[in-house]
Design brief:
Elements: E1 4-10, H1 11-14, E2 23-29, E3 34-37, H2 57-74, E4 82-89, H3 95-106, E5 112-117, E6 128-136
Parallel strand pairs: 4-5
Antiparallel strand pairs: 1-2, 3-6, 4-6
Helix pairs in contact: 2-3
Length: about 140
């Protein structure tokens, strides 16, 4: 692992009442390397900024996480270099589906995470937006 992850945990333990399986931690320590700050990713294509044709929170989250993965790779890194994510969702009822889907992409990574329920995102059809920070070692 490229970074030191302090107090790793899985959301199945911290939220037993929810059907979640996300590998997270309380803190990430990095040293050296280059920091990549990702713009909040939405369910749209990176090349043409067109929205995907879906109002399903799972499909939207897959697109968001695919964008995050692609951008980190374009910067020369991998998902294991992801250190922080901030998740914005428009309806708390989508939380489990969004976090389960996100968890598929961060399994074994253990980034720190903040989740917020917001009134709306920039476009009314968007249900989820996720921004992230990665540190790619030298």
């Amino acid at each position: 692992m490229a970074h030191t992850r302090i107090r790793k945990f899985n959301t199945a333990d911290t939220y037993p009442e929810q059907n979640l399986d996300n590998d997270l931690c309380q803190a990430v320590v990095t040293q050296g390397g280059k920091t990549v700050y990702l713009r909040g990713q939405c369910p749209q294509n990176l090349d043409d900024a067109k929205n995907i044709d879906s109002h399903d929170p799972v499909e939207q989250t897959h697109k968001v996480m695919q964008n995050i993965k692609q951008l980190i790779e374009e910067a020369g890194g991998t998902m294991e270099h992801l250190v922080k994510i901030v998740v914005y969702i428009t309806d708390v009822r989508y939380r489990e589906a969004i976090y389960r889907t996100m968890g598929e992409y961060i399994k074994g990574v253990h980034p720190v995470s903040t989740g917020l329920v917001v009134q709306a995102l920039a476009r009314p059809e968007w249900l989820v937006e996720i921004d992230g920070t990665a540190v790619i070692p030298e």
